[in-house]
Design brief:
Elements lengths: L1 E5 L11 H14 L4 E4 L7 H15 L4 E4 L12 H4 L2 H4 L8 E3 L5 E5 L18 H11 L11 H20 L4 E5 L16 H8 L4 H9 L4 E4 L6 E6 L2 E5 L17 H8 L1 E4 L1
Parallel strand pairs: 1-2, 2-3, 5-6, 6-7, 7-9
Antiparallel strand pairs: 1-10, 4-5, 8-9
Helix pairs in contact: 1-2
Length: 276
């Protein structure tokens, strides 16, 4: 069985024509023998467009390949509420948040949670600043200020941890190994720790939570796929967990993160593939 993983495609920002892209992606994935295609968020700046894209890709790939995704912060900017995001049964079968999916013919289950952040990845500021100070910076400068939610960042992250712990336990009942999908960064090992400027430490605070990484280590989760960062990492095993991070990122004139000449070549290059 083959699983392909990607993240941060930013299809609208990268000006991709979904009508042309979806058949091409479907042909590539099926030719590669991919059974499950997993996306860890940031497809569009509007959840309705992200969901429509995933559902269109699923129709092209059915019945050979199954598609799942979790939402990133960009997906949450428009077209969906916090309450809707927390009701996966109302969104559709391709949305993996709060779901446990056993992969037939294997001893592996998928577990998904969109994730969030609690400022704990901002090493040099986390103990020097209050949550209110981080929140003020966020409301002035960070794109997530557009995301309306009925709770604080710390409260939302605490909810993520409670949900994740419960869903991991639910998945373990059958003795399966776990592949956990989330958008936000679960460990300090992946962030811009070399950038100690206060602005970058503020950014680090919005990237994820070290508490999630600790939970995944405590629960001995075998595999984790995440997104949000646009830096490239080869699969790496930390504290017994193998992490996959496969972002496409931006291919803009003012911000070109690609190693290839165009989106298609970059997407093909960045795909992470797991063989079970």
């Amino acid at each position: 069985m083959k699983i392909a993983i990607s993240s941060d495609e930013h299809l609208d920002i990268n000006r991709q024509d979904v009508t042309e892209l979806v058949p091409r992606q479907a042909e590539f994935l099926q030719a590669a023998g991919v059974d499950y295609y997993l996306m860890t968020g940031d497809l569009f700046n509007d959840f309705t467009h992200s969901l429509a894209y995933v559902e269109r890709l699923q129709r092209e790939l059915a019945p050979r390949t199954q598609v799942y995704f979790v939402a990133g912060n960009h997906d949450m900017l428009a077209g969906v509420t916090y309450e809707e995001l927390e009701q996966p049964e109302l969104i559709g079968p391709n949305y993996l948040h709060r779901r446990v999916i056993h992969l037939p013919g294997t001893r592996v289950s998928l577990v998904g949670n969109n994730g969030w952040y609690d400022y704990s990845l901002a090493d040099s500021l986390a103990t020097a600043r209050t949550p209110a100070e981080f929140a003020r910076w966020k409301s002035a400068y960070w794109i997530d200020r557009r995301i309306k939610m009925p709770l604080s960042d710390q409260e939302r992250m605490a909810t993520v941890l409670t949900q994740t712990q419960a869903d991991l336990a639910r998945a373990r009942v059958g003795g399966d190994q776990l592949l956990f999908l989330t958008h936000f960064v679960p460990r300090r090992d992946f962030i811009f720790d070399q950038l100690d400027h206060p602005r970058w430490q503020n950014v680090n605070g919005m990237l994820g939570s070290q508490k999630l990484g600790q939970l995944l280590a405590d629960e001995q989760v075998e595999r984790v796929a995440f997104g949000h960062l646009h830096t490239r990492h080869l699969p790496v095993t930390l504290a017994g967990t193998t992490y996959y991070h496969a972002p496409v990122g931006y291919g803009l004139r003012r911000l070109n993160e690609w190693r290839e000449a165009n989106f298609w070549q970059e997407w093909c290059r960045d795909l992470a593939v797991i063989t079970l």
